[in-house]
């Protein structure tokens, strides 16, 4: 069985990490797996990408070129919107030349391929949805407009008041293209994403399976907290609130504003706030607790160190599928506080391994942080967090579920 995993990047970004982790877990199970990407950062020989200087340079420009139609909408929000119109890509030719038994698409935006090119893939397609783009008119998150249930238009992300706008045209392109694809299995990595996909007008009659992203729990595990805090120069004797700010401070959907408000409502003594994935800003943040910064970390060795500085991890996203940071934190025995949105309840069992605050309820978010930090049974919360990941998200367990899905598709 030959599997080809396709993603815009190999290890940069949440979807890329999820795709690469699946690729690695398949290899560990002796499955013939390769990964095809537009932009490669790793030196992994099983990851394929353009090798020529001209092709590499053009691929770096593709995300900016693909976004050109969006610039006509001057008031568009900061939510990512991908038209996927840019041609001159040899990706589909490479896919078909490799002759895989199954093509497993993941996040294919950033100008990687035109929507119409997807129908040219000859092998059966499995498509893991890491955000909403595959069934919307171009937005990666719909900002709760739910236009994807019909045919888009009047796009909230584009700040458009026209029915026949860019989102409507993209939705129509997807409708025509998907109609040409005979063998497509859709994977929602959270129950919420599967539900949204099932309600979309583009996936009517398609099989939708819920399978989460996998994690190597041998890497993401508890590490001596005092040693890790010494590495990052964070006080040993403080309660530590951790916020992963990778691409979060500039994206309203990630909830940094709401988190900072919650932090200032807190009344927990002997506490510090750590922002990971961001350097210290020129203007100090106006927060009631001392703030420490950890520079961006991306590799699978240093990330577990980052989580282990914390007593509690906060993921305050306002709309989210299945955040890697939540699973990674829980696997390191660090309870997580988040809003009760999207796929968060797939990972966080309220008051068992973390806390799910009311949607956009800043005061409840603050209560949740305090509840974890002052919990007399904190050790039990931490053990529950680890057990949840071992039972649901461990790569050894999940890789077999993916393999079984591939086998069933091929048998049919």
Percent strand equals 15-25%
Main CATH class of the largest domain: Alpha Beta
Which residues sit in consecutive blocks of at least 5 with pLDDT less than 50? none
Form type: globular
CATH superfamily of the largest domain: Glycogen Phosphorylase B
Percentage of residues assigned to helices: 25-40%
Q: Provide the number of structural domains.
A: 2
Q: Which oligomeric state applies?
A: single chain
Number of distinct helices: 13
Can you give the mean pLDDT? Answer: 93
Could you say what the CATH topology of the largest domain is called? Rossmann fold
CATH-defined architecture of the largest domain: 3-Layer(aba) Sandwich
Q: Structural class, please?
A: alpha/beta
The succession of helices and strands, N to C, reads EHEEHHEEHEHEHEHEEHEHEHEHHH
Task: Please state how the strands of the largest beta sheet are arranged side by side.
Answer: 3-2-1-4-5-6-7
Number of DSSP strand runs: 13
Query: Roughly how many Å apart are the termini?
Result: 14 Å
Mind explaining what this structure looks like?
The chain is α/β, with parallel strands linked by helices. The protein folds into 2 domains: 231 residues, Rossmann fold; 168 residues, Rossmann fold, CATH 3.40.50. The protein is 34% helix and 16% strand. It is built from 13 helices and 13 strands. A 7-stranded parallel beta sheet has the order 3-2-1-4-5-6-7, with helices on both faces. It has a 6-stranded parallel beta sheet with strand order 10-9-8-11-12-13, sandwiched between helices. Helix 7 crosses helix 11 and helix 9 crosses helix 12. The mean pLDDT is 93.
């Amino acid at each position: 069985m030959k599997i080809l995993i396709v993603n815009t990047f190999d290890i940069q970004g949440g979807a890329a990490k999820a795709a690469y982790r699946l690729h690695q877990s398949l290899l560990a199970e002796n499955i013939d797996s390769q990964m095809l990407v537009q932009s490669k950062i790793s030196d992994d020989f099983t990851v394929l990408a353009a090798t020529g200087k001209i092709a590499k340079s053009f691929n770096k420009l593709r995300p900016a070129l693909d976004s050109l139609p969006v610039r006509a909408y001057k008031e568009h929000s900061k939510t990512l919107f991908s038209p996927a119109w840019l041609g001159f890509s040899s990706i589909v030719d490479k896919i078909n030349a490799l002759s895989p038994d199954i093509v497993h698409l993941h996040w294919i935006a950033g100008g990687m391929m035109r929507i119409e090119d997807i129908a040219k893939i000859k092998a059966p397609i499995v498509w893991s949805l890491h955000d909403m783009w595959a069934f919307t008119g171009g937005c990666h998150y719909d900002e709760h407009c739910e236009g994807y249930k019909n045919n888009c238009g009047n796009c909230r992300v584009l700040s458009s008041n026209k029915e026949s706008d860019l989102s409507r045209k993209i939705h129509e392109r997807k409708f025509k293209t998907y109609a040409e694809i005979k063998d497509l299995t859709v994977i929602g990595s959270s129950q919420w994403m599967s539900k949204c996909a099932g309600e979309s007008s583009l996936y009517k009659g398609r099989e939708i399976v819920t399978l989460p992203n996998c994690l190597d729990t041998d890497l993401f595990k508890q590490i001596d907290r005092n040693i890790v805090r010494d590495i990052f120069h964070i006080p040993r004797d403080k309660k530590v609130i951790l916020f992963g700010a990778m691409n979060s401070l500039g994206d309203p959907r990630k909830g940094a504003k709401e988190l900072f408000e919650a932090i200032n409502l807190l009344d927990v003594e002997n506490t510090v706030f750590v922002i990971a994935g961001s350097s210290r800003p020129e203007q100090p943040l106006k927060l009631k607790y001392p703030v420490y910064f950890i520079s961006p970390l991306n590799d699978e060795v240093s990330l577990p160190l980052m989580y282990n500085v914390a007593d509690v991890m906060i993921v305050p996203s306002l709309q989210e599928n299945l955040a890697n940071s939540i699973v990674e934190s829980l696997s390191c025995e660090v309870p997580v506080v988040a809003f009760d949105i999207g796929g968060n309840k797939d990972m966080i069992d309220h008051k068992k391994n973390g806390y799910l605050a009311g949607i956009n309820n800043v005061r409840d978010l603050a209560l949740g942080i305090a509840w974890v930090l002052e919990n007399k049974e904190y050790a039990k919360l931490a053990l529950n967090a680890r057990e949840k990941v071992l039972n649901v998200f461990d790569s050894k367990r999940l890789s077999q579920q993916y393999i079984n899905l591939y086998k069933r598709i091929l048998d049919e």
